[in-house]
Design brief:
Number of helices: 2
Order of helices and strands: HH
Strand content: under 5%
Shape: globular
Largest sheet: none
Number of strands: 0
Distance between the termini: 20 Å
């Protein structure tokens, strides 16, 4: 489920379908991932596109 609001830098479903298989698989066992990978990738793309500091993305992205 995508975050709201969405940003122009967010991946479309088609783009995510191309990128997701390239990411390493999640580790089995141990603690589950705290934030969805798509949200993390969208946050990285937002920082790269806007030039904001990694510590200053909008609050609806995972914390830095």
């Amino acid at each position: 489920m995508p975050r709201r609001p969405t940003y122009p830098s967010d991946l479309t479903d088609e783009q995510w379908a191309l990128i997701e298989p390239l990411l390493p698989p999640a580790n089995t066992g141990g603690r589950p991932e705290k934030h969805p990978r798509r949200d993390v990738v969208d946050a990285i793309l937002y920082v790269v596109r806007t030039g904001c500091s990694w510590r200053h993305p909008p609050v609806d992205f995972p914390p830095w």
